[in-house]
Structures are given as C-alpha cells and as structure tokens.
Amino acid sequence: MTVASVPRPIARPRVRRPVATHRCTARNRRGEPCQAWPIHGATVCVAHGGRAPQVRAAAAKRVTEAQALAALQRASDRHQRDRQAWHARRVALVARLMGIPATEVTWAAIAVCVATHGQPDEPEPKITDARYRS
Ligand SMILES: [Zn+2]
Q1: Count: domains in the chain
Q2: 73-95 burial, b for 16+ CB within 10 Å, e for fewer?
Q3: In this model, does residue 134 exceed pLDDT 90?
Q4: Residue 56 lies in a domain
Q5: How far, in Å, from the CA of 23 to the mean position of ligand 1?
Q6: How remote is the CA of residue 34 from the centroid of ligand 1, in Å?
Q7: How much of the chain exceeds pLDDT 90, in percent?
Q8: Which residue range(s) make up the domain with 82?
Q9: Which of 10, 39, 108, 132 has the fewest CB atoms within 10 Å around its CB?
Q10: What's the pLDDT tens digit per position in 38-61?
C-alpha cells in the first residue's frame, strides 16, 4: 500500500471555541492539583470557586475583553493588508503617470505627481472606515 492510497480521515469542521489550556489552579484535600477544567475565562473549576457570582462575572468580563481585542486585531490586520495593497496601486499609478519605473517612485515623486495630476480617486484606507467595524 502506497502512501497515496491510504484513506485520509474525513476532515471535521473547525470549531471556533476558545479552549482552556490550563487546568484548575486549586488543590484537592491531599494537596494535589485539582486537574478539572476551569470555567471559561477563569483559572478555577466549578468546585473551586467557579460557581461564585463574582468569579463568573470576572470571567465573563475577561472573555468579552479577549473577544473585543481579537476583533480589533483582525480589523487592524485587514486594514494593514488593504493599506499595503493601496500603496502598491498608488506607486504603480505614479510610475505610469510620471513615466518612471515603479522602483524609482519616491515620496518626492508621489508629491510631484499629486501636484501635477491631483489626488488619486481611491482614498487611503483608514482604520476608522466602516468596513473595519465588525
Ligand atoms: Zn478545581
């Protein structure tokens, strides 16, 4: 049997659920680590304080903050990519309008091009643009 003929396992859809990477930080009566999974967003399991309202509230707050931070990071990454692509298009446009190779486009060349031909129609992507809100 060749490697190519080995049946591949059916790919399961990826579940986007944050998973705790550490076990409960509490210790049992024998002084050993608890080993149970902590509640989401906290470091303790339900038997070691995870059921307490203040622990649940703090955990929920941490989860919300982590989600907001992740969303901000995704928007920032997307903006960065869009801005780099926009800049590449601008350099290509300046090179064409000024009749110079793209490798010779400098900030000064861009400034001269803007003074000569006006601002390009495509505005620079801003992080405050509606498309980066989620
Ligand atoms: Zn525990």
Answers
A1: 1
A2: eebeeebeebeeeeeeebbebbb
A3: no
A4: no
A5: 8
A6: 5
A7: 77
A8: 76-134
A9: 10
A10: 999 999 999 999 999 999 999 999
